[in-house]
Write a structure and sequence with these properties.
alpha/beta, Spore Coat Polysaccharide Biosynthesis Protein SpsA, Chain A, eight-stranded mixed β-sheet, four-stranded mixed β-sheet, 313 residues
Length: 313
């Protein structure tokens, strides 16, 4: 294979239930020049055995790395090992939609110097059924870094498998912060948006699978630690906005309160919901509008409610 134009990094751990669907979605693209790096930390060979069944259809690079315990460490390793200048990552339970490869190639060709290409995503349930779309509150095309930061600080609206980014930009930002078990991807998009050109493509090309037993869902049940993770990222990047930080901060702090309350409610503790609602109501009209626009609260929560009602979460 000649030098690939795209590297797909797939960190995995006990992914034998899901990875077949993920790899099948990649194999269906029928486009050359894509390498897939699977960095697996499973205690058995089950996940990589399934992956090996795709070796005649995909350009795979398989890494058995039980020493890399976190998804952040596996992803950082994969990006460093990537042979292409442009990289994306794909959860071992997420999927590419039929036109993903062609769209990603067009994005890169239209702006190869952009450090970050952002895009919306579809949300699928554990059975693979689409239950919603999750959009970015951004205009189409090149977007000023200040605008991306201002809206992204209110809420992480980027599904991890959706963006395409330059490898050198990622490495220049230091990769994922391994101390952030929940917000490392949010922190990374903010770092990339601060360091180079950002392009938004209003095109849904991936399916983000939501399931009740995922690592992030399980971790979010500790709502205090969950809120702390978000505050770390907000405090780290808010000053990048300069004077505009004063306009963004109220909605961003309220968003953290709402997210922590929803996380607690998902674990059966509903005591935080009323205080979080009051926090929102105390915002002025402009801040409420900012929160509603940037948080994508309905797009994020409605699919989860539907999946729970269907017994597919």
């Amino acid at each position: 294979m000649r030098a690939p134009w795209l590297s797909v990094v797939m960190p995995s751990l006990r992914a034998e239930r899901w990875i077949d669907a993920s790899l099948a979605s990649l194999a269906a693209q029928q486009m050359d020049g894509i390498e897939i790096l699977i960095i697996d930390g499973s205690p058995t060979s089950a996940t990589l055995d399934i992956a090996r069944s795709y070796e005649n259809r995909l350009h795979l690079r398989l890494f058995e790395r039980p020493d890399l315990e976190s998804w952040q460490a596996k992803t950082n390793f994969g990006v460093e090992a990537a042979a292409a200048e442009h990289v994306c990552w794909l959860g071992s339970d997420d999927v590419w939609l039929p036109k993903r490869a062609g769209s990603a190639r067009a994005w890169i060709e239209s702006a190869s110097d952009a450090g970050l290409h952002l895009a919306p995503s579809a949300i699928i349930d554990r059975r693979g059924r689409k239950i919603g779309d999750w959009h970015c509150p951004l205009p189409e095309g090149f977007v000023a870094s200040e605008l991306v930061l201002a809206r992204l600080l209110v809420q992480n609206f980027v599904a991890a498998p959706a963006p395409v980014f330059r490898k050198d930009a990622w490495l220049g930002c230091g990769g994922l912060d391994q101390q952030l078990w929940y917000t490392a991807d949010w922190d990374m998009w903010l770092k990339l948006a601060s360091s180079g050109k950002v392009v938004h493509h209003d095109e849904v090309t991936i399916g983000l699978r939501i399931r009740g037993d995922s690592l992030t869902v399980a971790g979010s049940r500790d709502s205090a630690e969950f809120a702390s993770q978000m505050r770390i990222v907000l405090d780290r990047h808010l000053a990048r906005l300069g004077e505009a930080a004063k306009q963004v901060e109220p909605a961003a702090r309220a968003s953290i309160a709402v997210n922590a309350a929803l996380a607690a409610a998902s674990a059966g503790d509903f005591r935080r919901l009323i205080p979080a609602a009051l926090t929102l109501l105390r915002l002025g009209p402009g801040d409420i509008h900012r929160y509603w626009r940037d948080s994508r609260i309905v797009e994020r929560t409605a699919p989860r409610v539907r999946a729970r009602l269907r017994g597919a979460l």
